[in-house]
Amino acid sequence: MLLKQINMSNFYNKKAVSGTPVDMADDSKTVTVYYSAFGNVDSDGDIIVPGAFSKSIKENGPNAKNRIWHLFNHSTDKPVSKPKELTEDAFGLKAVVKMPNTTLGRDTYELYKDGHITEHSIGFQTVKSLAKSAYNEITEIKLFEGSSVLWGANSNTPTVMVKSEIKSTVIDEIAKTIKSLRNGFYTDETFGLLELKLKQLQQYLTEMEDETSVPSEQQPLTDFPGELQTPEEDAQEALDEEENPTISVEIEINKYLQSFKIFN
Predict the structure, then answer these.
(1) In a domain, 128, yes or no
(2) What's the pLDDT tens digit per position in 52-80?
(3) What pLDDT digit, counting tens, does each position of 136-191 carry?
(4) Is the pTM of this model over 0.70?
(5) In sequence order, what are the residues at sequence separation of 6 or more whose Cβ sits closer than 8 angstroms to the Cβ of residue 66?
(6) Which one of 8, 130, 152, 220 is CB 3.0 to 4.6 Å from 137, fit for a cystine?
(7) Cα separation values, 172 from 133, 201, 206, Å
(8) Domains of the chain: total
(9) What are phi and psi of 83, to 5 degrees?
(10) Are 124 and 142 in contact (CB under 8 A)?
(11) Residue 219 within any structural domain of the chain
(12) Number of Cβ within a 10 Å radius of residue 189
């Protein structure tokens, strides 16, 4: 096995882990989340092992120099807070973060409560790793920050079954986002972020529909070219559209966008 020391050309990297908070406390505005998970080979071919964060926590964690931040979407312009607790357990790197009484802190906590933040990510430098036959084992990490990530859908889904599951998730996210836009209590900046998220989800859903749609030359022909549908057939088609969640969501999106006249 080759022990390699990473040079400064790989000074800052990002890796994400999916998952909503494992705990939330409304009275103290505190969330408990996982920044990273152990034992999973990611898309970069890396696997982080237990103990990889221990030196960084010991030197820069909450009980040391306290230099590790909790950011929003990895943006240094949006420092939310610093973890009050940072530990490794059997699953991964766990953080307890108290949201401050600031605009960004309040908005971030509300986004957690409404279910919009479902992914977290770390900004780090790989210090030591072991090159193995099937993957790269990261054994020591210098951790700079952990981030709340608003939406992290992967459009490169390889199978139809997974795509259908992703589509269902997207539809749920769209419904959740529209609900928050109509009833949420956020700043104008966060409302704008949610509106952008809605457009991203709409585009993503449209692209998925385009990928799975049947080309026109494969569409079944009527018995007679140019044959018109009867009123009864029109009514049945309308009912079918009502039962199609994708079409219903598209209608909801259009209603929302028309009522608020954004992204024109």
Answers:
(1) yes
(2) 999 999 999 999 999 999 999 888 889 99
(3) 999 999 999 999 987 654 333 234 545 566 778 888 888 888 999 999 888 887 88
(4) no
(5) 60, 82
(6) 130
(7) 40, 10, 15
(8) 2
(9) -60, 135
(10) yes
(11) no
(12) 11
